[in-house]
Specification:
With about 90 residues, this protein is of the alpha+beta class. It is about 25% helix and about 40% strand. Strand 2 and strand 3 form a beta hairpin.
């Protein structure tokens, strides 16, 4: 199984619309590890790692988002897998 890690930044109306929780649920359903968090600039950042096809599925889902979100764009960066997060969680930035 080929593993992949992606860092994505999601733009649009993505805060205050349960985007993080829907993302967490979708990532868990896909068996991915990583995190999702609101950034101070109004975007949402996602780091996900797992089977290559499952990561691609989550990144495609990010472009659609939660029922009340309005995603304008998703920027993604491929990274080297690290295997440093055992689960997928909502991250809170200070």
């Amino acid at each position: 199984m080929e593993r992949k890690r992606v860092r994505a930044r999601v733009y649009g109306r993505v805060q205050g619309v349960a985007f993080r929780e829907y993302t967490r649920q979708e990532a868990v359903r896909l068996g991915l590890s990583g995190w999702v968090g609101n950034r101070p600039d109004g975007t949402v950042e996602v780091v996900c790692e797992g089977a290559s096809s499952q990561v691609d599925t989550l990144v495609a889902w990010l472009a659609i988002g939660s029922p009340f979100s309005q995603v304008s764009r998703v920027e993604r960066t491929d990274e080297s897998p690290r295997d440093d997060t055992p689960s997928f969680f909502v991250r809170h930035f200070s």
